[in-house]
Amino acid sequence: MSDAPACVDSSADRRPTPIHDRLDRAKHLHAVAQAQQDGQSQRAAVSGAGVARSTLRHWNASPAPSAPAALSAFVETPEGVVWLRRILVAAHWSIGEQGGAGVRVVCDFLERSGLSAFIGASYGAQQAFHAGLEEQIVTAATELRGTLAQAMPHRTLSIAEDETWKDGMRLVGIDAVSNFILLEHRSDERSAAAWTRALEGGLEGLNVTVVQGTSDEAKGLLAHVERDLGAHHATDLFHLQHEVSQAMSLSLKRAEQQAETAETEAKARWQDECAAEQAYHRRRHGPGRPPAFAARIDEALSAYVQASLAREQAHAHRAEAKALIGAFSEVDHPYEIQQGQAQTPEQLEARLGTLFARLEAIAEEADLSERLCAHLAKAKRLTQSLVATLTFFFMMVNTRVQALDLAPAIEQAMLDDLIPALYLERVAARSTRAEPRHRLRALSAQRLAPLRQPSHPIQSLDPQTRHHLEQVAGECADLFQRSSSCVEGRNGFLALYQHGHHRLSPRKQQVLTALHNFAIKRPDGTTAAERFFAQPHPSLFEQVLERMPWPARPARRRPRPARQPYLVPVAA
Prior knowledge:
Residues 552-572 are annotated as: Disordered. By secondary structure, the protein is of the alpha/beta class. It has helices spanning 22-37, 42-49, 53-60, 69-75, 78-98, 103-113, 123-151, 192-202, 219-228, 237-282, 293-331, 345-365, 370-381, 383-402, 408-430, 434-448, 463-477, 485-501, 506-518, 528-533, 540-545; strands at 155-165, 169-175, 181-186, 208-215, 232-235. The chain is built from 21 helices and five strands. It has a five-stranded mixed sheet, sandwiched between helices. A hairpin with a 5-residue loop joins strand 2 and strand 3 (181-186). Helix 7 (123-151) packs across helix 19 (506-518), helix 8 packs across helix 9 (219-228) and helix 10 packs antiparallel against helix 13.
């Protein structure tokens, strides 16, 4: 047996070459430069920095970018590398995600801004960076949601639900108060069971109770809200107005146009008869009876007057129907918006009945078809749902206020002044015209004025208790929900986004939901998540920024070979 030593694999002694990311490189270069400024040799500075001299020579041999020297020096520092990453993430975030412009527009931005001298602006590099950004957005939003859910106080929710049809059907549910998206779930059906399963997933881990659902009158949604959730279903007022509009608007517009045409023709006929009489008298005529111009003119004038009256009536019918459709929005409030007084369900039912009585009279005068009258009858049946929603609102408000166990004077002040004032303020914020907005805010301030007097019993409470009463009053004011417009707005946004991208992948859908909930802010500076969870949260952008890799350095541009003409002669 040989005593020769066994052959040892020399690869076991090999050490992997350290790979420095861009920030490490900037830190090492900064440390070496600082040490040399302090009087150390390059060898000692490199040894202290923990990097090989060959690596340092390679870094220093990189071609200088075609950019201002001061900027080039800054981006090679650690602070400059961090700044470059923020700029790149912000470009993808604002242009690619919120703006929906795509990766190629980000590449174009880097080229035009001159940042391509420091950041690789090729499509491949930026597409990979963009994909990583989307993954980090979804991950960070999921973690934020879990963290906030652990500390959130209990909330009663009024949710708005509807389906959208973008790349298949999606079931969409949004908290109507905070505008927080609870679910955007792909589904093959929209039955009550499908809605309930989707909402259970959307509410998982949340300390909430659904007490009300606002939607259209689809049977699946009705069963889902009333049977499965045991909540109150609030009819969307828009759908009632839409049914009335289907019955009246187009038909009355067409009748007005026909009346205008008939008036124009009758006027032209009258003018022609008058012109014929004048032309007859300008000529010399022989014996014989002249034409009966007076009778013809009177007949034409009478027809013109009748056509004008018919046109005025058609215009009046259309204008009145339009005003009546808008009046539904003014009437359907728990506190009437003229004086701010509470409106009983009986008063609401009577006012809605008056509106429908006049609409039915207009339909009869305009001789609408049976099919159109059926739309009007369908809308009229929804009035019972609106009255039921008002009854539910006052029942919930009284229950919430009585649970506070306040003194009678303070309890009455909350019911008669504080809650109506906060509700009117919310209505004013949603108003699109300045005049009603200012009037409603003045009315709200008028209702609050007695409560602010030092002699009022509510002022004897400590500040913490008053703040709690304001919070409860605000929650009570938010209980009245008559619209699912937040879902319709979301569906419209997705439609526009899909129009530019042709499709919405599951990851892109999750990114858009995350940005809606945790990134987009209202003018008051709050996100939907902050309003929903009733607590502030770290910036989603900053959370994602810290997880993203450092920007890739631009590669050396290699010249492309010149393109040869197609008709170059071939050597014999």
